[in-house]
Structure formats: C-alpha cells, structure tokens
Amino acid sequence: MAGPRFVAGVTISAYNPRAVRRPARLLALTAIATCVALPLAATAQQDEVAVSPAEGRATDAAPVLGLAELTHAAEKTYPGVRAAEARIRAARAQLDEAWVAPFFQSYITAGFTLAPEARGSPIFSPDAQVPLTNPWQPVVGVNFEGAIPLWTFGKLPALREAARAGIRASESDRARVRSQLLYDVRRAYYSVQFALDVQQMMHEGIPQIERAIERTDERLASGDPEVQDTDRFRLTTALAEIRAREAQAVHLEHSGFTALRILTGLRTFRVPECPIAVVEATSRPLEAYVAGALNDRPEIRMLEAAQRAREASLDIARAGFWPDIALTYRFAVSYAPGITDQSNPFVIDPANYMNISAGLALRWSLDLWGNAYRVDRETALVDDLRARFEEARRGIELEVTDAYETTVEARGREAAFRSGTRDARAWLVTTVQAIDVGTGEANDLVDAVRAYFQNRAQHLQAMMDLNTALANLERTAALPVTERWEQRCDE
After folding, report:
1. Residue 76 burial class via C-beta count within 10 angstroms: exposed 0-12, middle 13-18, buried 19 and up
2. Domain contains 457
3. Which 3 state secondary structure label does DSSP give 38?
4. How many domains does the chain have?
5. What is the pTM of this model?
6. CATH number, domain containing residue 32
7. Which domain does 303 fall in, by range?
8. Which of 51, 261, 329, 411 could be 254's S-S partner, Cβ–Cβ 3.0 to 4.6 Å?
9. Beta bridge partners of 442
10. How many C-beta atoms surround the C-beta of residue 162 within 10 A?
11. What confidence tens digit (pLDDT) does each residue in 284-340 have?
C-alpha cells in the first residue's frame, strides 16, 4: 500500500556521550554519504525540455492530476493526434473520389463570339465567301459531352484498393502517434516522481549539516580539542555539493513538468504526492512480445498498407496494355441569328446546329513500349518495398529484444537495490544502536551510512528505469504489459 512521499532518516540520540563528543564528525559522514547518491538526478532526464528555475512547482491551488488524467488530456489535445485524424479523413475522401469521379467525367464547353452576317442557301447567296464588310452578329454555342467507363481491365479496382490501403496506413499512423504519446507522457511523469523523491533525500540532509556547521563553529571558537578545522571543511564541502545537486534535481523536476505541460496542453496542475512505485506488470516470454510486434505494431500495419498500395500501382501499370471501354454521350447546340440556318441535314452548318449522340467507345493508348518500362519500374519499386519491409521487421525484432532485455535488467536491478536498501537500513540501525550504547565507533558508521543512502538513491532510479522500460516495451511490442500504470496514495 503506497503512502505519502517520505525518505527515512537516522537520528542519533543527544544523550549518548560519544554522540555528544563528536556530533560534527558523525553528521559530516552522513552528509558526505548522502552526496554519493545525488549525481543520479543530473543524468536521469537529459533528453527532457529545459525550463527556467523561476517557473517552479505548481501552487497548492492547482488541481491534482494522476497519470491517467494526464494521459487522457494528452490524447484529447495533442496536435499530432489531430493531424493523424485529419490524414485519415483525407484518405477516406480519396477513396470516395475513386468510387465517384470515374463516372462523372463530363464536360460543358460554352462559347460566345462574333461573326459577319451571311445569307442565302447552299445553292445561292448574295454574300461573298468571307463577307467581312457585312454587319457582325453574335454566335452562341454550348457543348456537353462525357464518358462512363464500362470496362477498364482492372484499372479502377486497383485504384480503389490503393485508396483503401491509404486509409489503413493513416489509421495505423494514428495508432503509432498515440503509442508514442503515451510513452512520452509516462516517461515524463515517472521522471517527475523520481525528481521529487530525490529532492526529499537532499532536503533531509541540508538542515542537519547547517546545524552541524553552527555547532562546529561554536566548538572551534571555544577551543574544543575534539573538533578540528577539517571537520568544518568536510561539512561545508558536503553542504555545497548538496546545494549544487539540489539545483540539478529542481531542474529535473521543472523539465518533467514542462514536458507534461507541452504534451497534455494543461498549464497548471500538480501530480499526486506519492512516492514512485514499481508498476505491476504481466511477464511474458520474449517470443510473445516479438510476435505481438510483428503482428500488431502500427509500423508493420503501415508497411503492409504501403506494400498493397504499391502492388495496386503495379496492377494499374499492367492494365495499361489494354484499352478502356466506355459509354460516351454528347449534346451540342449553336445559334447564330445573323447567319441563315441551313435546315438540310446533309449540309454542314458550323453556326447553327444541334447534335445528340451516344454509343460505345474504345480508347487504347499505343504507347506499349513505354508502358513496358513503366511496368518494370513499378515491379522494381514493389521489390524494393518488400525488401525494406523485411528489413523493418528485423529492425523491429531487434528493437523489441532490446526493450525486453532492458526491462529484465531493470527488474533485476530494482530487486537488487530493494534488497540492498533493506539490508543497508538494518545495518545502519544496528550501527547507530551500537554507537548509542558505546560499543561502536564513528568509522563503523561511515560504510553503513554510505551504503544506505547510495542504495536508496539507486533504488529510486531503478524503479523509474523499470517503469520507463515497461512503457517502452508496450510501445515496441504493441502488447499491454499492465492494466494500471500508477498506484495511487489512497489505495
């Protein structure tokens, strides 16, 4: 059961004679041992967004949002998700166009011009052949024509299949964007938890060291022979080191919060005051994760869709050797009031006419030689995509294997440091009790304090690394590893 965020400390009884004689020396050892663990905070999140220390932590009035709420907000507001959904709409519109557009290839041509007046009949006319000196009159014409494809030898079905592949690729791309977003939010969230826990460890040591420096100064001023200048130097050096590491831990916290704000679109919030805890995950063999990635990974789906689209393009190129059979239709009318209408159907009158026609048409491109090269090109592109698909499958298998082994290593490291922290704490308590009764020496405390704080800090980082590795394993393997990514304090 998770509780409030805390870091266990050690208190040396003030009534112990040895503790009274050497308070500065014992606190110096504690401070120096604490500093051993602090560099971990500086390297835990080097790839996060840097922010100004002035931003600080959210105020107490800000709402408390856990990982589930932050993830939900990121899915609703992240621009990458909206962009992926827009690409899906575009791909669906392209499929609709592939179904409708071929059957609406109709065109209207309307024209207006001026022509010299012409009178008479095909037998006699009082005007010259080109009567430029006659008055010019308007000529208006409209031409409506089109074709409906009846048989294309596979061109239209291949075009629609390519459009369907585009939809599948866009939907898989949205899944890829969402998977990466979830991983980024979880990684930033665990980084914030780790930073807060590390700061707790450092905040525990600073007041003790400051009080120890004051007492050391007093005893040095009084000429106490049990206190030396080196005791004060060790204390002040340790205090400076802790303050420097504290600034790095604060920077880590601010970076994590900034990453969460950018990913979720929320400007003000707080995370629950819970210590970082290991995610309870279901363990599967490596083969299951590899199989899940090769079957359900969004990138695999995208490559499959791209391969099908390229194969459809090859089908279109092969169908180019064959003609298109279509139903054609045409309606044309022209009217020129200044030109005598020739009503004889056997006389061509370019100014006054009406034409209605419909029938079957065959359109066949005789660029067969060039089309053969187009088929060769599309075949080579299909082979290229298949080879790249196989290369990607091997790369994904390698990535999943690395993520799995990283998780195994992080799990083993977390278990080792958890056991080491428990044993080091028992060791430290035993040593302090021995000093309280007068049977222990200060030197005995050095190794115990160092071991406890070092194991504690490394255990915190191991928990963060394990949670992040599990999130990365779920992203790479496309298999859920747990139902809950966060343990709340009130549980």
Report:
1. exposed
2. yes
3. coil
4. 1
5. 0.77
6. 1.20.1600.10
7. 17-92+160-307+375-477
8. 51
9. none
10. 21
11. 999 999 999 999 999 999 999 999 999 999 999 999 999 999 999 999 999 999 888
